[in-house]
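Sample entry follows:

:::
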Amino acid sequence: MMLRNLSFITGIFLLISCSPSLPGDVAAAYKTLPENIDFNRHVKPILSDRCFSCHGPDKGKLQAGLRLDLPESALAELPETPGKKALVPGSLRNSEVFHRIISNDPDYVMPEPKSHLTLTAYEKAMLIKWIEEGAKYKPHWAFIKPVKNKVPQVSQKTWVKNPIDNFILQRLENEKLAPSAEADKETLLRRVTFDLTGLPPTIAEMDAFLKDHSPKAYEKQVDRLLASPHYGERMAVDWLDVARFADSHGYTVDRIRDMSPWRDWVINAFNKNLSYKNFITWQLAGDLLPHPTKEQLIATAFNRNHQQNMEGGIIEEEFRVEYVSDRVNTSSEAFMALTVGCAKCHDHKFDPISQKEYYQLFSFFNNVKEAGKYHGTMPCPYPLCSLPMTRKIKCSPTLKALSS
């Protein structure tokens, strides 16, 4: 038994002695790190902001042949330093990244001083713990299938009223914060009314809520607000911004363009609780559905919200291509949460989108027969149409439906 205990103690001593020591500020920050580190949430933002400018997707600025955005490169032998690797999962001593980020030598430390980028002690500690835990990479969050997380255990169980509270309280406890006290009823009603309708509660609504002492008084107010027509108006505000909604053409000759039928469709879609699948499909390709309804045709005006130029001296093909690019960029941001537009000129520097893939997506929107110049002197009788009447182009049934 004594020999077994001695062997165990010796093993622990060797393990500790083999782990490099950390600078004082980094060691202190290490103790404040969350228990579970996620690559996309905790590590990738640091690498993207401080490392990818020299060791990321941009081939033109790549230094030392090292790409830290790709695990196959980060875990491989360094091209310019044989025998060394940037990352060795579980081993700080053998990971060049570790030695570089804690160094004080200006000729060795990373990020290098001339980049004017630095790592805080907390960020260094985060990278160190990530390496210790295996330096595991994950794909871009948008490409990971959502999974249902286990409800976390928390210490203040009496504070929890539903499972969502567990996730909120866990984060608060990790940040060493305490929940705020519950607001008074007047404040609660003002908050939820502004959140769901964008308007303040009326005096009558406030009085009714204050007099309601039932256990579900608040839930009844939420149900009332969700049934209000103002709910759709409030929810539509953010979507109209994403979809670059405007009632004018947007260039120097900025004349009125009535897009109100599409705006009203968006409001009604939220009030009717239209499924997200249909919300996407109808806006992108409602006119391509079998026997499309007037509502489905109106939804496609999402693709017509771009600027339209009616200046006399423009090159029409140039602006027709601009309109197609606008649809690609807006659709990617609105439906995929990706800045695909960066790949119009080069491979994306931060997200896994190549320039070739950009123009493959571009081709989907490049099949609309339209002109790059809007001829305002002879406008089409259909308000949402951008086709010039001087061109003999068959008008789309979609545009007729939008304006009828």
Notes: Residues 6-17, 377-383, 385-395 have pLDDT under 50 and may be disordered. The chain is about 45% helix and 0% strand.
